[in-house]
Amino acid sequence: MQGKITYRTIPTTDPMFRNRGITMLSGSATEGMKLQSYIPVPDNVVLCDGCNTNLYPRAVDAVYINGELHGVYCKWCRERYFPRLGDLWNTQT
Question: What is the pTM assigned to this prediction?
Fold first, then answer.
């Protein structure tokens, strides 16, 4: 992974976790992609990108690479997958 990696702790009640959904696509290279279905994600479901634990209503660590959101993690997974964040790099924003 290259670039500046930072994180910030945010509540799972943050507006970024409202009115979300997953779009399932189907198709092939010759047919092109077609919308198959849209599945809404409840506001009270915020999964850790490392261990898939539902973190609602606790806070999550949002990890950014070069200012772009990379994922949200529980504290344990953030420390496991990004061990140098916070203590060594002191990059919490």
Answer: 0.76
Which DSSP letter does residue 92 get? B
Q: Write a three-state SS string for 4-66.
A: CEEEEEEECCCHHHCCEEEEEEEEECCCEEEEEEEEEECCCCCECCCCCCECCCCEEEEEEEC
Residues of the chain with pLDDT under 50: 87-93
Task: Note whether residue 90 is domain-resident.
Answer: no
Burial group, residue 35, by CB count within 10 angstroms (0-12, 13-18, 19+): exposed
Strands 32-41, 59-65: pairing kind: unpaired
The total number of structural domains that make up the chain: 1
pLDDT attached to residue 29: 67
pLDDT on residue 70: 93
